[in-house]
Amino acid sequence: MMNTSVIKLGQKHAPLFTVVRDRIREDILNGVYRPGDRLIEGKLSEDLGVSRIPIREALRELSAEGIVTIEPRRGASVAVLSDHQAKNLAEVRAALEGLNARLAAMRRDEATIDALKDILQRGQDALAKEDLAELKQLNTLFHEHLGTMAQNHVLTELTNSFRDRTTLLFAPSNIQRVRNNWEEHAQILNAVIAGNAELANLLATQHVHNAAAAYFETKEK
Fold first, then answer.
1. Burial of 206 per CB tally in 10 Å (0-12, 13-18, 19+)
2. What UniProt keywords apply to this chain's record, in alphabetical order (predicted)?
3. Rounded to whole angstroms, what are the CA distances from 214 to 94, 125, 176, 186, 221?
4. What integer best gives the mean pLDDT of the chain?
5. d(CA 102, CA 17)
6. Could you say which DSSP state residue 74 is in?
7. Residue 7 has pLDDT above 80, yes or no
8. Is 1 among the domain residues?
9. How far is 61 from 190, CA to CA, in rounded Å?
């Protein structure tokens, strides 16, 4: 019987470069590769069981997201954000998330509210188990559902694109920050349910600034 845990990515049936991209992104966010670490195509090809072509395509995509830096003659490495870049990114994302929450409160609907309540409960269950992988997925779902309720496709496209660019900045650094995230999610949802657009905007904006503050605090240690 085959041990599926050791199957290489090249043996999976999926658009290969997207599988490779997601795997490298996950490894970066999980600290397998640290900011500044080189991402050598040959080594990645060997480790993941694929040719260099999907590796190269994946690295280009991650470069467009801002997670990877590609330099002539040096190749790819995990991006290193300057403090100035990080602050600029945080300011823009805070504005986008605040507007998203404001519109969600103004255009709320019961079906999406019920879905968000369910996500929030699943998040609490995952917190009890300290299941960080599940929490990461649920965090994405929470923000996606808020975007659905905001009913602004232009804002959704901008926000989703910007979330990709700020992945490194807003990856929770420890379990306490993850707990704080979900407490803040609950506060945002309560404001949305109440139809308090101003409060939802304020809480979502502060949510981003809190995550940025945690990033800088971790960086200084």
1. middle
2. DNA-binding, Transcription, Transcription regulation
3. 15, 23, 10, 19, 11
4. 88
5. 36
6. T
7. no
8. no
9. 36
Token readout for 57 is: 């395509």
- Name the amino acid, one letter, at 194: A
Domain C-terminal end among 78, 98, 117: 78
Residue 216 lies in a domain: yes
Helix (H) or strand (E) holding 166: none
pLDDT at site 221: 63
Longest dimension (CA), the chain: 58
Nearest C-alpha neighbor of 27 from the set 137, 166, 133, 161: 133
Q: State the average pLDDT over residues 22-48.
A: 90
Q: What is the pLDDT of residues 154-212, one digit of tens each?
A: 999 999 888 877 877 777 667 888 899 999 999 999 999 999 999 999 999 999 999 99
Residues in the chain: 221
- Beta strands 75-78 and 38-39 are antiparallel
State the pLDDT at residue 14: 58
Tokens coding 93:
């994302």
Give the integer Cα–Cα distance in Å for 168 and 88: 14
Residue 2 covered by a domain: no
User: Rounded CA gap, 196 and 105, in Å?
Assistant: 6
Q: How many CA atoms lie within 13 A of 120 on its CB side?
A: 18
Look up residue 164 and give its amino acid: D
Domain total in the chain:
2
pLDDT, tens only, 104-162: 999 999 999 999 999 999 999 999 999 988 998 899 899 999 999 999 999 999 998 88
139 and 152: one domain? yes
Residues 87, 66, single domain; the answer is: no
Q: Taking phi first (over 0 means left), then psi (-120 to 50 degrees means alpha), and beta for anything else, what does residue 153 get?
A: alpha
